[in-house]
Known about the structure:
single chain, 293 residues, two-stranded antiparallel ribbon, 10 strands
Amino acid sequence: MKMNPNQRLKTSKNAMSVFKVCLVMILLIAIMMLAISCMGAQDDIALNAREVDLVQYKVPEDDTKVVVFETTAGTMKAVLYEEYAPNYCEYFIDLVESGYYNDTYYFLIENEQKAYAFGGSKANTGDDTDDTDKKQLEPETSKNLWPFRGALCTYGSEKGIFNKRNLTGSRIIFVNSVDFTEDFIEEMRDIENANEDLVEAFIANGGVPNFSQQFTTFGQIYYGLDVLETICGTEVNDKKQPVDEIKIISATISTYGEHKLENEEEFFTESFKTDDSSQTDSSSQTDSSSQQN
Length: 293
């Protein structure tokens, strides 16, 4: 049966419509597969980091830059990790040296578990003002930096549809710790393919594991963790804002050499770890020698 020109044209249009629909579906599937692949890669970093160097618990070199926060609750000092977050550290140091953080506010506090506090805002509500630095940078995550208790992370807006990522901004997340209950510790140790040293570091030191590889970690408080605890335990209203204002009075850049801990072993535990196996071998050799004598 022959089709007239109008029928052929209609059939051709229908075929083209079907082709377009199929093409759109193929593109959507490709995008979804790419998104799943990207999210899987992020999970690998967070859960399967094999060769983790716990630099946050190693004694810094004397010339390593630190930031000193004078707050209404007390003084905190933090090491900055320019090697791992160079772009953000450069931006942050410029802000500090310009006096940007002087007289800024802590504006959101998770005080039920004393888990974290958001600070560095020009307004006590966390809202932008005319003086707010609104620059945002791409995230810089590292398998060697984690949201342990005392970590400094940076908070910006989310970017992306499928592979969402948190951009960096001028506001700071001061990480304290969630409650490491027996059930939570068991859950942490049961995470498939998790790095055992990393898991045990969280259990020993505290932190917010759910933040892992989600935000740019750029610093670590090594002095004033009691001050952070006080800030995170302050009374808040129904919007999680402090009832009584808590402020960063000033922030200054210095070096670790100028602000060393008197007893470095108390915090920088990784630098003072001993190899148990080598101790055992050494002990065995000593015992053997004693017996021979």
